[in-house]
Protein backbone atom coordinates (compact mmCIF):
# COMPACT_ATOMS: atom_id res chain seq x y z
CA UNK A 1 0.00 0.00 0.00
CA UNK A 2 1.53 3.30 -1.13
CA UNK A 3 -0.84 5.83 0.44
CA UNK A 4 0.29 7.18 3.84
CA UNK A 5 -2.75 8.20 5.90
CA UNK A 6 -2.44 11.15 8.27
CA UNK A 7 -4.44 13.55 10.46
CA UNK A 8 -7.01 10.95 11.42
CA UNK A 9 -7.53 9.62 7.91
CA UNK A 10 -7.66 5.84 7.65
CA UNK A 11 -4.53 4.35 7.50
CA UNK A 12 7.34 7.88 -22.76
CA UNK A 13 6.57 5.38 -27.76
CA UNK A 14 9.84 5.91 -25.70
CA UNK A 15 9.09 9.57 -25.35
CA UNK A 16 10.31 10.16 -21.82
CA UNK A 17 13.74 10.97 -20.40
CA UNK A 18 14.45 9.78 -16.90
CA UNK A 19 16.81 12.64 -16.19
CA UNK A 20 13.92 14.87 -15.21
CA UNK A 21 11.82 15.75 -17.40
CA UNK A 22 4.31 12.73 -15.69
CA UNK A 23 -8.26 8.87 -23.62
CA UNK A 24 -8.85 7.98 -26.23
CA UNK A 25 -11.47 10.42 -25.00
CA UNK A 26 -8.98 13.18 -24.66
CA UNK A 27 -7.61 16.10 -26.63
CA UNK A 28 -4.88 18.34 -25.41
CA UNK A 29 -4.61 21.32 -23.13
CA UNK A 30 -5.70 24.82 -24.13
CA UNK A 31 -4.57 26.18 -27.44
CA UNK A 32 -2.75 29.52 -27.65
CA UNK A 33 -6.04 31.24 -28.39
CA UNK A 34 -7.80 29.98 -25.28
CA UNK A 35 -8.42 32.78 -22.80
CA UNK A 36 -6.85 30.90 -19.90
CA UNK A 37 -3.92 29.37 -21.77
CA UNK A 38 -0.56 29.97 -20.14
CA UNK A 39 2.23 31.11 -22.41
CA UNK A 40 4.45 28.42 -20.99
CA UNK A 41 1.95 25.78 -22.12
CA UNK A 42 1.47 27.07 -25.69
CA UNK A 43 2.25 24.46 -28.38
CA UNK A 44 5.59 24.93 -30.08
CA UNK A 45 6.10 25.34 -33.80
CA UNK A 46 7.82 22.46 -35.56
CA UNK A 47 11.07 24.43 -35.69
CA UNK A 48 10.84 25.30 -32.00
CA UNK A 49 10.08 21.71 -31.10
CA UNK A 50 13.07 20.52 -33.09
CA UNK A 51 15.29 23.10 -31.42
CA UNK A 52 13.97 22.18 -27.97
CA UNK A 53 14.49 18.51 -28.73
CA UNK A 54 18.10 19.11 -29.61
CA UNK A 55 18.69 21.37 -26.63
CA UNK A 56 17.27 18.89 -24.14
CA UNK A 57 18.41 15.66 -25.78
CA UNK A 58 14.91 14.82 -27.00
CA UNK A 59 15.83 13.32 -30.39
CA UNK A 60 14.26 9.91 -30.77
CA UNK A 61 17.57 8.05 -30.79
CA UNK A 62 18.92 9.89 -27.75
CA UNK A 63 15.69 9.31 -25.84
CA UNK A 64 15.86 5.59 -26.57
CA UNK A 65 19.47 5.51 -25.41
CA UNK A 66 18.68 7.45 -22.24
CA UNK A 67 15.78 5.23 -21.29
CA UNK A 68 17.85 2.12 -21.98
CA UNK A 69 20.74 3.45 -19.89
CA UNK A 70 18.68 4.67 -16.94
CA UNK A 71 15.78 2.21 -16.92
CA UNK A 72 14.68 1.47 -13.41
CA UNK A 73 16.74 4.28 -11.87
CA UNK A 74 14.94 6.60 -9.46
CA UNK A 75 16.07 10.19 -9.02
CA UNK A 76 14.71 13.56 -7.94
CA UNK A 77 12.27 14.95 -10.49
CA UNK A 78 13.25 18.30 -11.93
CA UNK A 79 10.69 21.16 -12.08
CA UNK A 80 9.74 20.79 -15.77
CA UNK A 81 6.39 21.48 -17.51
CA UNK A 82 5.63 17.75 -17.61
CA UNK A 83 6.40 17.23 -13.94
CA UNK A 84 4.37 20.35 -13.12
CA UNK A 85 1.25 18.34 -13.97
CA UNK A 86 1.94 16.07 -10.99
CA UNK A 87 1.24 17.10 -7.43
CA UNK A 88 0.99 15.94 -3.86
CA UNK A 89 -2.37 15.30 -2.18
CA UNK A 90 -2.68 16.80 1.29
CA UNK A 91 -5.33 16.87 3.94
CA UNK A 92 -6.56 20.40 4.71
CA UNK A 93 -3.73 22.42 3.14
CA UNK A 94 -0.08 22.35 2.16
CA UNK A 95 1.04 22.90 5.75
CA UNK A 96 0.06 19.37 6.64
CA UNK A 97 1.45 16.01 5.54
CA UNK A 98 1.04 14.73 2.02
CA UNK A 99 -0.03 11.13 1.68
CA UNK A 100 -0.76 10.50 -2.03
CA UNK A 101 -0.04 11.78 -5.54
CA UNK A 102 -2.29 12.93 -8.40
CA UNK A 103 -1.94 14.52 -11.85
CA UNK A 104 -3.92 16.67 -14.25
CA UNK A 105 -5.68 14.81 -17.07
CA UNK A 106 -7.42 16.32 -20.06
CA UNK A 107 -11.14 17.02 -19.71
CA UNK A 108 -13.80 19.22 -21.27
CA UNK A 109 -14.17 21.01 -17.96
CA UNK A 110 -10.39 21.63 -17.73
CA UNK A 111 -10.60 20.69 -14.06
CA UNK A 112 -9.85 16.97 -13.67
CA UNK A 113 -7.11 15.08 -11.85
CA UNK A 114 -6.44 11.34 -11.68
CA UNK A 115 -5.23 9.37 -8.67
CA UNK A 116 -5.76 6.00 -6.98
CA UNK A 117 -9.21 5.26 -5.58
CA UNK A 118 -7.76 4.24 -2.22
CA UNK A 119 -6.34 7.76 -1.87
CA UNK A 120 -9.76 9.39 -1.85
CA UNK A 121 -12.37 6.77 -0.96
CA UNK A 122 -12.46 4.15 1.79
CA UNK A 123 -15.24 1.58 1.25
CA UNK A 124 -15.76 1.38 5.01
CA UNK A 125 -16.19 5.10 5.68
CA UNK A 126 -16.78 6.68 2.27
CA UNK A 127 -15.10 9.66 0.70
CA UNK A 128 -12.10 11.16 2.43
CA UNK A 129 -12.93 14.84 2.91
CA UNK A 130 -11.00 18.07 3.02
CA UNK A 131 -8.34 17.08 0.47
CA UNK A 132 -6.25 19.41 -1.69
CA UNK A 133 -4.03 18.93 -4.74
CA UNK A 134 -0.74 20.83 -4.85
CA UNK A 135 0.88 20.53 -8.30
CA UNK A 136 4.62 21.06 -8.47
CA UNK A 137 4.97 21.03 -4.68
CA UNK A 138 8.61 21.23 -3.62
CA UNK A 139 10.15 21.93 -0.22
CA UNK A 140 7.07 23.74 1.05
CA UNK A 141 6.61 25.85 -2.08
CA UNK A 142 3.29 25.76 -3.93
CA UNK A 143 4.25 27.26 -7.31
CA UNK A 144 0.92 26.51 -8.99
CA UNK A 145 -1.45 26.98 -6.10
CA UNK A 146 -3.47 24.74 -3.81
CA UNK A 147 -6.54 23.23 -5.48
CA UNK A 148 -9.41 21.91 -3.39
CA UNK A 149 -11.07 18.67 -4.45
CA UNK A 150 -14.75 19.34 -5.13
CA UNK A 151 -16.02 15.91 -6.18
CA UNK A 152 -14.63 12.45 -6.82
CA UNK A 153 -15.66 9.53 -9.01
CA UNK A 154 -14.79 5.92 -8.22
CA UNK A 155 -16.08 2.67 -9.68
CA UNK A 156 -18.95 1.09 -7.74
CA UNK A 157 -16.91 -2.09 -7.37
CA UNK A 158 -14.30 -0.08 -5.50
CA UNK A 159 -16.90 1.66 -3.36
CA UNK A 160 -18.51 -1.67 -2.46
CA UNK A 161 -15.53 -3.94 -1.94
CA UNK A 162 -12.23 -2.20 -2.80
CA UNK A 163 -11.88 -4.13 -6.07
CA UNK A 164 -8.16 -3.75 -6.93
CA UNK A 165 -8.95 -3.88 -10.65
CA UNK A 166 -10.54 -0.43 -10.42
CA UNK A 167 -8.25 1.30 -7.94
CA UNK A 168 -8.54 4.50 -9.97
CA UNK A 169 -10.30 7.76 -9.20
CA UNK A 170 -10.99 11.02 -10.96
CA UNK A 171 -11.53 14.21 -9.01
CA UNK A 172 -12.78 17.63 -10.03
CA UNK A 173 -10.85 20.50 -8.46
CA UNK A 174 -12.27 23.95 -7.85
CA UNK A 175 -11.01 26.91 -9.94
CA UNK A 176 -8.61 29.54 -8.64
CA UNK A 177 -8.70 33.20 -9.61
CA UNK A 178 -11.20 32.42 -12.34
CA UNK A 179 -9.04 29.75 -13.97
CA UNK A 180 -9.26 25.97 -14.09
CA UNK A 181 -6.22 23.85 -13.34
CA UNK A 182 -5.81 22.72 -16.95
CA UNK A 183 -5.82 26.32 -18.14
CA UNK A 184 -2.93 27.02 -15.80
CA UNK A 185 -0.85 23.88 -16.33
CA UNK A 186 -2.09 21.95 -19.35
CA UNK A 187 -2.92 18.26 -19.04
CA UNK A 188 -1.87 14.78 -20.07
CA UNK A 189 -4.22 12.70 -22.17
CA UNK A 190 -5.86 9.55 -20.83
CA UNK A 191 -4.72 6.33 -22.53
CA UNK A 192 -7.19 3.44 -22.74
CA UNK A 193 -6.45 -0.16 -23.82
CA UNK A 194 -2.83 0.59 -24.69
CA UNK A 195 -1.52 -2.86 -23.83
CA UNK A 196 0.84 -4.14 -21.16
CA UNK A 197 4.37 -3.40 -22.45
CA UNK A 198 4.90 0.34 -22.58
CA UNK A 199 7.83 2.66 -21.82
CA UNK A 200 6.57 4.98 -19.09
CA UNK A 201 7.81 7.56 -16.64
CA UNK A 202 6.40 7.43 -13.11
CA UNK A 203 6.61 10.60 -11.02
CA UNK A 204 5.33 10.88 -7.47
CA UNK A 205 5.71 12.18 -3.95
CA UNK A 206 6.98 9.91 -1.17
CA UNK A 207 5.41 11.07 2.07
CA UNK A 208 8.82 10.93 3.75
CA UNK A 209 10.26 13.65 1.47
CA UNK A 210 9.53 17.14 0.23
CA UNK A 211 10.45 16.71 -3.45
CA UNK A 212 9.04 14.41 -6.13
CA UNK A 213 10.92 11.43 -7.52
CA UNK A 214 10.84 10.02 -11.03
CA UNK A 215 11.79 6.78 -12.77
CA UNK A 216 11.36 5.39 -16.28
CA UNK A 217 11.07 1.75 -17.26
CA UNK A 218 9.06 -0.69 -19.33
CA UNK A 219 5.78 -1.92 -17.91
CA UNK A 220 4.77 -5.56 -17.93
CA UNK A 221 1.67 -7.63 -17.30
CA UNK A 222 1.05 -8.67 -13.71
CA UNK A 223 -2.33 -10.13 -14.68
CA UNK A 224 -4.96 -9.39 -17.34
CA UNK A 225 -6.23 -6.58 -15.11
CA UNK A 226 -2.95 -5.30 -13.61
CA UNK A 227 0.28 -3.68 -14.79
CA UNK A 228 3.61 -3.67 -12.96
CA UNK A 229 6.83 -1.69 -13.14
CA UNK A 230 10.17 -2.06 -11.40
CA UNK A 231 11.43 1.26 -9.99
CA UNK A 232 13.13 1.57 -6.59
CA UNK A 233 12.16 3.71 -3.61
CA UNK A 234 8.46 4.22 -4.38
CA UNK A 235 7.35 4.23 -0.77
CA UNK A 236 4.23 5.49 1.01
CA UNK A 237 2.77 8.62 -0.54
CA UNK A 238 3.40 7.61 -4.15
CA UNK A 239 -0.05 6.03 -4.59
CA UNK A 240 -1.74 7.76 -7.51
CA UNK A 241 1.53 8.59 -9.29
CA UNK A 242 0.83 8.75 -13.05
CA UNK A 243 2.42 6.32 -15.52
CA UNK A 244 3.10 8.56 -18.53
CA UNK A 245 4.05 7.48 -22.05
CA UNK A 246 4.15 9.09 -25.52
CA UNK A 247 5.70 12.37 -24.48
CA UNK A 248 5.09 15.03 -27.16
CA UNK A 249 7.77 17.76 -27.15
CA UNK A 250 5.43 20.10 -29.03
CA UNK A 251 2.74 20.12 -26.36
CA UNK A 252 5.09 19.05 -23.55
CA UNK A 253 2.52 16.52 -22.36
CA UNK A 254 2.08 12.77 -22.54
CA UNK A 255 -0.52 10.06 -22.02
CA UNK A 256 -1.40 8.54 -18.65
CA UNK A 257 -1.81 4.77 -18.91
CA UNK A 258 -1.82 3.92 -15.20
CA UNK A 259 -1.51 5.19 -11.64
CA UNK A 260 0.22 3.49 -8.73
CA UNK A 261 -2.51 1.44 -7.07
CA UNK A 262 -4.37 -1.74 -7.87
CA UNK A 263 -2.71 -4.95 -6.67
CA UNK A 264 -1.70 -4.55 -3.01
CA UNK A 265 -2.86 -0.92 -3.36
CA UNK A 266 0.27 -0.24 -5.38
CA UNK A 267 2.66 -2.79 -3.92
CA UNK A 268 3.99 -3.93 -0.56
CA UNK A 269 7.66 -3.40 -1.44
CA UNK A 270 9.18 -0.07 -2.57
CA UNK A 271 10.88 -1.46 -5.68
CA UNK A 272 7.90 -2.86 -7.60
CA UNK A 273 4.71 -0.91 -8.22
CA UNK A 274 1.36 -1.85 -9.74
CA UNK A 275 -1.55 -0.21 -11.51
CA UNK A 276 -5.04 -1.27 -12.42
CA UNK A 277 -5.12 -1.77 -16.19
CA UNK A 278 -6.66 1.22 -17.97
CA UNK A 279 -9.31 -0.55 -20.03
CA UNK A 280 -13.02 -0.21 -20.65
CA UNK A 281 -13.89 0.14 -16.97
CA UNK A 282 -11.57 3.11 -16.55
CA UNK A 283 -12.96 4.62 -19.75
CA UNK A 284 -16.47 4.31 -18.31
CA UNK A 285 -15.28 5.87 -15.06
CA UNK A 286 -13.77 8.81 -16.95
CA UNK A 287 -17.05 9.24 -18.85
CA UNK A 288 -18.93 9.42 -15.54
CA UNK A 289 -16.46 11.91 -14.11
CA UNK A 290 -16.72 14.19 -17.13
CA UNK A 291 -20.38 13.63 -18.04
Give the C-alpha Rg.
Answer: 17 Å
Q: Which regions are unreliable across 5 or more consecutive residues at pLDDT < 50?
A: 5-60
* Helix content class: 10-25%
The description of the largest β-sheet is: 6 strands, mixed
Question: What is the subunit organization of this protein?
Answer: single chain
Average pLDDT reading = 83
Distance between the termini: 30 Å
Number of helices: 6
Explain what the structure shows.
This protein has 291 residues and is α+β, with helices and mostly antiparallel strands. It has 6 helices and 17 strands. The strands form 4 sheets. Strands 1-12-11-15-16-10 form a 6-stranded mixed β-sheet. A 6-stranded antiparallel β-barrel has the order 2-3-4-9-8-7. The protein is globular, with a radius of gyration of 17 Å. 51% of the residues are buried.
In short, what is this structure?
The protein is α+β, with helices and mostly antiparallel strands and 291 residues long. It has helices at residues 46-56, 60-70, 117-120, 156-161, 181-185, 280-290, and strands at 75-76, 86-91, 98-105, 112-115, 121-122, 126-127, 131-135, 147-154, 169-173, 189-190, 199-204, 213-218, 220-223, 226-230, 242-248, 253-259, 272-276.
Helices and strands in order:
Blueprint: H1 46-56, H2 60-70, E1 75-76, E2 86-91, E3 98-105, E4 112-115, H3 117-120, E5 121-122, E6 126-127, E7 131-135, E8 147-154, H4 156-161, E9 169-173, H5 181-185, E10 189-190, E11 199-204, E12 213-218, E13 220-223, E14 226-230, E15 242-248, E16 253-259, E17 272-276, H6 280-290
Parallel strand pairs: 10-16
Antiparallel strand pairs: 1-12, 2-3, 2-7, 3-4, 4-9, 5-6, 7-8, 8-9, 11-12, 11-15, 13-14, 14-17, 15-16
